[in-house]
Design goal:
about 280 residues; alpha/beta; TIM Barrel; eight-stranded parallel β-barrel; two-stranded antiparallel ribbon; 10 helices; 10 strands
Length: about 280
């Protein structure tokens, strides 16, 4: 059994924000320095790149990398029907872009009870989960049907920080309600945690194991990197045992959520490769 290792542009989001790298430099790092199998491209980094997507696709392919996933930042938890309509159109646009890149899946969010993390007021305005859930499922079903027409599978990320889908029960519920072979999970290793940003209180490994069979991609989240351990909070020996035991063969996409990425990511990648 072989798992493929990739890297999300989010791993270098500080470098992108500080203009230390551009999207082409990111691709070169993944190909030359990290010697990875693929890359995951986030909408915010592609929008800011200001490049022709077909030109970028050509460059990625010529560097010998696969595009494991294109990721859109959406929120189906808004209470406003007008905002929800706009979010559906946003996801559909990025499904079209995913098709342009030739990627098989698009990562989506269920949403938040109110503003998303990138909105002003995140964490202050809240709505009842039961109230916004039906609208979220309705939006997801519409986007899944559009993805099916385009040959793109939607992969929902389990997300903590007040996300609508942040427990194993949430994930199983939405998978059952959407009920489509064109819908699965982008399983985040830190998504089934109780935490406030980097202060993790607990990790539900049972939820990870119970939903790994629906994973289209796995995010290897780095919460707190160690010198000789992949992460000092998340038990990656346990996580890799779950992956192997369940015969996971897809992409592992690194999400390095820590500072000093230019030093830390190569060390982390080396530790991960020792597990593969």
């Amino acid at each position: 059994m072989t798992m493929k290792l990739g890297c999300s542009t989010w791993s270098y989001h500080r470098a992108f924000e500080g203009n230390a790298i551009d999207i082409f430099k990111f691709i070169d790092i993944c190909a030359d320095d990290l010697e990875l199998d693929g890359v995951e491209l986030l909408d915010l980094h592609l929008d800011k790149a200001g490049v022709d997507f077909l030109t970028l696709k050509n460059y990625i392919v010529r560097r010998g990398l696969s595009i494991s996933c294109v990721s859109v930042s959406n929120n189906f938890g808004y209470r406003s029907e007008e905002k929800l309509k706009g979010e559906v159109e946003k996801v559909k646009r990025w499904i079209d872009i995913t098709k342009t890149f030739g990627a098989p899946i698009i990562r989506v969010f269920a949403g938040w009870e109110g503003p998303a993390p990138w909105d002003e007021g995140f964490g202050t305005e809240r709505a009842e989960k039961e109230r916004v859930w039906p609208g979220m499922v309705r939006c997801m079903k519409e986007c899944v049907e559009y993805g099916k027409e385009c040959g793109i599978i939607l992969a929902l990320e389990n997300h903590n920080h007040r996300g609508l889908v942040h427990t194993g029960e949430d994930a199983e519920k939405i998978l059952k309600e959407v009920d489509s072979p064109w819908f699965g999970l982008n399983l985040d290793t830190a998504g089934y945690t109780e935490q406030e940003w980097n202060a993790v209180q607990s990790v539900d490994y049972a939820a990870f194991e119970n939903t790994i069979n629906r994973a289209l991609q796995v995010h290897l989240k780095i919460v707190s990197p160690g010198q000789d351990r992949i992460d000092t909070v998340l038990d990656y020996d346990r996580i890799f045992n779950i992956l192997v035991r369940n015969s996971y063969r897809g992409f592992l996409s690194l999400e390095y959520d820590w500072e000093e990425e230019f030093d830390g990511i190569p060390r982390t990648v080396s530790l991960i490769k020792n597990k593969l």
